[in-house]
Write a structure and sequence with these properties.
Elements: H1 18-28, H2 39-55, H3 61-78, E1 90-93, E2 107-110, H4 113-133, H5 140-168, H6 178-202, H7 207-228, H8 241-266, H9 270-291, H10 297-318, H11 360-397, H12 402-409, H13 415-426, H14 429-472, H15 481-515, H16 517-525, H17 527-533, H18 546-573, H19 580-590, H20 595-619, H21 621-639, H22 645-712, H23 803-810
Antiparallel strand pairs: 1-2
Length: about 850
């Protein structure tokens, strides 16, 4: 046996991966067209972790493939979710924990996937050293495997040495100290070189080659010995490690001298041969003295035999002077052992469980694209609906088309009014509006309760941390709560502002309802009630006048324009372009995504013609209104007089009908607004709850360490504040009422996007419930602005993909993508250096 030193494994703790990971993915990917259902993948990932971290302690070669697969999955997942956002309290103990070192951190709990990756990578290196140590030097396959694993282990430890502090962002346990990792990397490299020595001996390579390999190995062990004996490290190692390293250094020196003596023997340099054999014998004895073990025992007898034979031959035959060994030419060096780069994937059969999730950069680009697309759609639809509402308002004020119907039918209720009444009744009438208005306070209260509970959890976590920091002062080394919760608090404030403005929106809706309540009641009660309420009149007989004919033709033109606008609106809503492949290709090609240029090129192709149709429809409305006004003036002139109170009431009924349609849209979208907000707030609350639980676990671990340390000196009873003694109050994200699609008339108070998630938009008296977009949190905009975008604002026009369009688009007032939860410099590189483990040569 090579008697290799193997690194002990870090001991993990079981954690709940399922809930925090599910909450994070649902939150981050909630704006997808069809939110990914990753429940099965998350459950499998949790099983994979449990299997990998405990299977490693069996220390078989088969265990390596299992832990490789888990590590590969971490790396793949890390590229899709920011590692610091996964609020799982990963706890790992120090690999060299002896349980009796004063002032030394023996375990560490950090809520970061990067910390989990570091610890798993350390255990991979440790397991590789254990599997290598179990190989036989008599087996060629065993030697090859041992050499490969030791070089890989050295590479992993070297990589960790340079990245661990960036990943942890705090003082590590002793095993993850960069000096410790550097020392272990050197040890693994020296042992890999030792395997090459055994391999050369096993394969009967030339003596000079074996001598060079052993001489280099002696140097590597000498470097190890210096590092391992440093004051800050020597207390970490098991007591036999330093003697073993010292013994191996001497033994490899002895091997080098022995094989170099064979080279001298072949060249008839008897004096040098004897000097090297004597030195070899001395080093073998020193090796045994230092370590209490015998290395290369089969060579010791050969050294003694060759020394006796060479001495006898020299005494009787050659009579050469025996030179001082210090004066001899140094033995050459050869080092096939290398520090191998960390590769990904490590597993030969890696299958990404989360292959459906796109990288963070692509997801952000998709979210930004959807915002831009929805902004265009909503703006164009609002232009159509605003123009239609203006047209409806004009017709209602002129009592059209009822006025020209009155001239034909005397005191009967005009067909257009009957049609409006039937439409109101078919949609539930005023009773439906009253029901929806009554539900709004309950929906509002539900959202307020969720946000209040979320704020309470954050405040309680901060109070606990502040109290313990005041008690333990500088010993309380945990990151302050304020440094971690700034984004949480910022988003909570934005949600609070959303709710405050929603309250004002409710008031606007209620005021509009009260204004038109009487007219909506008449329309809801049917033709009989309208007939009874309408004053009698004597609409003059001008049915065959030119003005009436003109107005009828114009009313047909109005209906045509309205029908065209419904079609355009549907076309605006329907186009769906899957940009995922486009953004993935851009990321693979350039390493970055120029989202603005790509998005506006695609949006120009998709919506350019529709924007032109909207502009043409709005433009031709102006001349149409002038014609209607002129024809109506002629109509009034020909009729001679107005119908007084009867016409005024019909105008009021027409306005009530339009108000009913608008209010129904507002309330349907208001209900959806509150239900969507509930889902987002529950997601936000879950995220905060995961954070608070992870901080609680971290706090308890640190508190335990400090309490144990204090017990060795002056006992201290920490007065730890209560921390979520009761489970946090949570809420069901299922909407209280199913979202309903808005009607097409009126303004667009709830711009709906394909992801069924709200987007930012301005609020006015006619658009009381502007929606918002927080993927996964509210972004930097005012979703309840008191004014909409200026009517003069135009989206970029021109040939698709033009540079000028992209430049203009970059200045458009779109909300910027959030960097929720990120801390500057908080993440280690997302992937390890490229390369693969070299095969045996």
């Amino acid at each position: 046996m090579a008697e290799l030193l193997s690194i002990p494994l870090k001991k993990p703790s079981d954690v709940d991966l399922i809930t925090p990971l599910k909450n994070l993915i649902q939150s981050r990917y909630s704006t997808a067209d069809k939110p990914e259902d990753c429940s099965e993948a998350i459950n499998e990932f949790s099983k994979q972790r449990s299997n990998a971290i405990w299977k490693a302690f069996e220390k078989y070669e088969s265990s390596l493939e299992i832990i490789y697969g888990y590590y590969d999955q971490i790396v793949a997942l890390e590229s899709k979710i920011p590692p610091q956002e996964l609020q799982v309290p990963f706890k790992w103990k120090d690999a060299f924990d002896k349980g009796n070192l004063f002032g030394t951190r023996m375990s560490l709990t950090i809520t970061s996937l990067s910390f989990e990756k570091v610890c798993v990578l350390f255990n991979i290196a440790a397991l590789q050293s254990n599997v290598a140590a179990a190989q036989s030097v008599e087996s060629d396959e065993g030697l090859k495997l041992a050499a490969k694993l030791l070089q890989q282990s050295s590479g992993i430890l070297s990589y960790l040495k340079s990245t661990v502090m960036l990943a942890l962002q705090q003082d590590p346990t002793p095993d993850l100290n960069p000096d410790t990792l550097g020392a272990l990397s050197q040890l693994m490299l020296a042992q890999a070189q030792q395997i090459f020595v055994h391999k050369a001996i096993h394969d009967n390579m030339k003596d000079v080659i074996v001598a060079k390999l052993a001489s280099q190995c002696e140097d590597l062990y000498a470097e190890c010995l210096k590092v391992f004996q440093r004051d800050n490290l020597k207390h970490i190692w098991d007591k036999e490690w330093i003697p073993m390293i010292a013994g191996k250094q001497a033994a490899l020196g002895a091997v080098a001298e022995f094989y170099q003596s064979l080279v001298c023997k072949a060249n008839k340099r008897i004096g040098e041969e004897i000097a090297r054999l004597r030195r070899s014998s001395e080093l073998f004895k020193a090796s045994q003295s230092r370590s209490g073990r015998t290395f290369f025992g089969d060579l010791i007898s050969k050294v003694d035999r060759n020394l006796n034979e060479a001495t006898k031959d020299n005494d009787f035959i050659y009579h050469e002077i025996i030179p001082d060994v210090k004066a001899l030419e140094p033995i050459g060096k050869a080092q096939p052992a290398k520090v191998l780069q960390v590769s990904h994937p490590m597993s030969q059969n890696f299958n990404d469980l989360f292959s459906e999730l796109v990288p963070v950069a692509v997801h952000q680009a998709l979210a930004s694209y959807d915002i831009r697309k929805t902004e265009i759609v909503n703006t164009e639809i609002t232009k159509l609906r605003e123009a239609t509402q203006m047209l409806n308002g004009l017709l209602a004020s002129l009592n059209l088309p009822a006025a020209i119907e009155v001239t034909d039918n005397g005191d009967e209720v005009p067909p257009s009014i009957l049609e409006k009444s039937n439409g109101v009744i078919s949609l539930g009438g005023i009773t439906e509006l009253q029901r929806m208005i009554t539900e709004l306070p309950e929906l509002l209260k539900r959202n307020q309760d969720i946000l209040d509970e979320t704020d309470r959890m954050l405040a309680e976590e901060k109070s606990s941390d502040d109290a313990l920091r005041a008690q333990f002062k500088e010993k309380w080394t945990r990151t302050p709560s304020d440094n971690l919760t700034e984004m949480f608090k910022s988003n909570s404030a934005k949600y609070r502002q959303i709710l405050n403005n929603a309250i004002e929106a409710d008031k606007t809706v209620r005021a509009k309802f009260d204004t038109h309540k009487q007219g909506m009641e008449l329309l809801s009660n049917g033709p009989g009630a309208i007939q009874s309420a309408l004053p009698s009149g004597n609409g003059g007989s001008v049915g065959n006048s030119s003005a009436v004919q003109t107005l009828k033709e114009l009313m047909e033109e109005v209906e045509t324009i309205k029908a065209e606008r419904v079609t355009i609106e549907e076309d605006l809503k329907n186009p769906t372009t899957d940009m995922k492949d486009t953004f993935l290709s851009a990321l693979a090609k350039d390493g970055v995504i120029n989202e603005a240029a790509i998005s506006f090129e695609n949006l120009g192709k998709t919506y350019g013609s529709l924007q032109k149709q909207v502009a043409e429809s709005v433009e031709k409305q102006g001349p149409l209104i002038q014609k209607i006004q002129q024809a109506h003036s002629q109509f009034v002139s020909e009729r001679g007089s107005t119908v007084g109170g009867r016409e005024q009431m019909m105008c009021s009924l027409a306005s009530a009908h339009d108000a009913f349609r608008d209010l129904l849209n507002n309330l349907q979208e208001g209900t959806k607004f509150y239900n969507d907000l509930t889902q987002m707030l529950v997601s936000f609350q879950n995220k905060v709850s995961d954070f608070c639980f992870a901080r609680k676990t971290e706090k308890e671990e640190l508190l335990k360490d400090l309490t144990q340390e204090s017990s060795r000196t002056t006992p201290v009873q920490p007065a730890a504040p209560s921390y979520h003694s009761d489970p946090p109050k949570t809420y069901d994200a299922t909407p209280g009422a199913p979202p309903q699609q808005a009607q097409s008339s009126g303004y667009l108070p709830y711009p709906v996007q394909s992801q069924n998630m709200p987007v930012p938009y301005g609020a006015t008296a006619n658009t009381p419930y502007p929606t918002y977009v927080p993927p996964p949190m509210p972004q930097g905009y005012n979703p309840y602005a008191t004014m909409p975008y200026p009517s003069s604002y135009q989206f970029p026009q021109g040939p698709p993909g033009s540079y000028q369009n992209a430049q203009q688009a970059a200045q458009a007032p779109f909300p910027q993508q959030s960097n929720y939860g990120q801390q500057p410099g908080a993440y280690p590189p997302g992937a390890y250096p490229p390369g693969s483990y070299p095969t045996w040569r």
